[in-house]
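INTERNAL AUDIT FORM
Audit reference: QA-55
Scope: verify that the stored structure record matches its stored sequence.
Auditor: D.O.
Record contents follow.
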Amino acid sequence: MQRVDPVAFRQAASRFVTGVAVLTALDRRGEVCGMTANSFVSISLAPPTVLVSVKPGRMHDAISAAARYGVNVLPEDGKHLSRHFAGRPAADAVAACEIVQGLPRLPGCVAFFACELIRSVDVNDHTLFIAEVSTCDYSDTLPLVFFSSRYHLGPGMPVDR
């Protein structure tokens, strides 16, 4: 099989509009950890089941150990949280978390999903964590979205370049 150029693949994949979510969990020491992800997918309604894709690291270890994770869908003013959990730390991001049903939850989320791991599948350099949703809620605020490697406000204009 011919392999696609990784740069071309990344550019093409960036043309798919995604919401911006932060995965959260408690690590083995009970500390909040998280990572920004756009690889969150609803895969079944009965029972409610979702999938996230995670590279090896602290978040991967936390999900593997706890067998639970939260998905926080960010609101349009959540760019600073996305950046914090993508490796550009902001002093107040973790302090803003509250613990809900044993999972860290970020304030003001458009939606929150508490997830119980049912399966993990290793695929190349990532693990797909498949989970049933034990509880969720949502608000009617506009989401932060990502398109063409840039943040956008809901259906509106780009917020950075």
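Auditor finding: record pair retrieved intact. The chain has one domain: 17-145.
Action required: none
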